[in-house]
Predict the structure.
Amino acid sequence: MSKRAPRKSSDHRLDRTDKRILRELQSNGRISNVELARRVNLSATPCLERVRRLEQAGFIRDYVAILDPQRIEASLLLYVEVTLDRTTPEVFDRFKEAIINRPEVQECHMVAGGFDYLVKVRVPDMQAYRHFLGEGLTAAPGVRETHTYVVMEEIKETTEIEIRD
């Protein structure tokens, strides 16, 4: 995803039409402006202006294609709990630097609770995961222990965020 410097959301209030536009774009980012305008009951030009304003305000961060992991040899999905040996800003920074550019890592979240990070990993198979675990994750600075959870079945996966009226 591109990293634009979004303005604070308080700079722009969402009205009902903005929310409808965001819902439609989450559902289909490739929708034409003409079709989007029709669905939200606007003409094309005001609709496009609203979309651009939502992009500039940081409500829309990017547009992406969502790929089928089975078709691109990334079918093994795992979640890994990571516990660090110390919880200091320096250790957090070193871990972040080590993990941020790993292509196997789809998401990494610092969490509160019994461990420090929850990491979402996609790889072709268990051999690739063992390599990532040994050469990447556990070799990262400050890692004390990990616990891996292999996903057996994906029940629900979405990128859409609920937008309340």
In short: The beta strands are 76-84, 105-110, 117-123, 143-150.
